Amino acid sequence: MKKTEGFIKDLFDRISPRYDLFNTASTFFLDRYWRKCASRTVEKEDAKILDVCTGTGELALQFAARLNGKGQVVGVDFSKGMLELARKKLKRLGKEEKILLLMGQAEHLSFQEGVFDYVTSGFSMRNLIDLDQGLREMVRVLKSGGHAVILEINRPSNHVSGLFYRCYLKGVVPIIGFLTCGRLYPFLYLNNSVIGFQTPAEFCGRLRSAGFRQVSFRALPPGAIGLYDAVK
Ligand SMILES: C[S@@+](CC[C@H](N)C(=O)[O-])C[C@H]1O[C@@H](n2cnc3c(N)ncnc32)[C@H](O)[C@@H]1O
């Protein structure tokens, strides 16, 4: 499975109709809690927020809930299928005014420099074809002092808990994926993308190299998810 733009787009287009169900089932509803933790980092109610790789808009919705009438969220993704789902969801929830959805690529954002107070991203960094370029783009579109708030699955460690987590990723997640989406290969890719991703220390280093001057990391319960807060 070679990670190309076409492969990633196609994968998310295919699983988009059941993506939310898969997330909820495979995390035992914890994904909502993790997104809420990320959204609590927002302190400005009139903030301009960009959600990169917004998918079906779940993280964008959590952030939008923190804003007043002057705040705005823009969600960008390159999968037509995921964006269609997000659009339907926003319409159903009456949130179309609050969240603007655009098709676009994380590595080449179509915004001017320094326009957003926050750039957010949920569970997507390990899918980027060019991670460093994606992070540099986040820095570019942020205002000085703006925050990148990123949720990502931690790479399993080599300890006993890591072994359990590896078994869960390789054994249980593909089964849940197959039962919810009727396909196996996307979940084999997703698991390999977690195992092949960076440790929190390495990812913090990549954030600094991209141009963030202050980077913090916290593991969210039960420990498998990292919440990164990086300041421009
Ligand atoms: C695992 S989903 C996460 C969706 C959402 N952020 C969430 O929290 O559920 C990853 C998303 O990233 C998108 N994506 C991956 N690489 C991308 C890229 N280079 N540019 C734009 N979107 C990308 C995919 O289409 C998919 O919707």
Task: Give the arrangement of secondary structure elements.
Layout lengths: L4 H11 L3 H8 L3 H10 L8 E5 L5 H7 L7 E6 L2 H14 L5 E5 L12 E7 L8 H11 E12 L6 H22 L3 H11 L4 H11 L3 E7 L4 E7 L1
Parallel strand pairs: 1-2, 1-4, 2-3, 4-5
Antiparallel strand pairs: 5-7, 6-7
The protein binds S-adenosylmethionine.
S-adenosylmethionine binds next to α1 and α4.
Low-confidence stretches: none
Q: In what order do the strands lie side by side in the largest sheet?
A: 3-2-1-4-5-7-6
What are the secondary-structure elements, in order, as H or E?
A: HHHEHEHEEHEHHHEE
Q: N-to-C terminal Cα separation, in Å?
A: 35 Å
Q: CATH homologous superfamily name?
A: Vaccinia Virus protein VP39
Q: Would you give the CATH topology? A: Rossmann fold
Largest sheet: 7 strands, mixed
Structural class category = alpha/beta
The number of distinct structural domains comes to 1
- Can you list the ligands bound to this structure? S-adenosylmethionine
Helix count equals 9
- Provide the helix percentage: 40-55%
Estimated share of beta-strand residues: 15-25%
Would you write up a description of this structure?
This protein is α/β, with parallel strands linked by helices and 232 residues long. It has helices spanning 5-15, 19-26, 30-39, 58-64, 80-93, 131-141, 160-181, 185-195, 200-210; strands at 48-52, 72-77, 99-103, 116-122, 142-153, 214-220, 225-231. The protein is globular and about 45 Å long. It starts with a helix and ends with a strand.
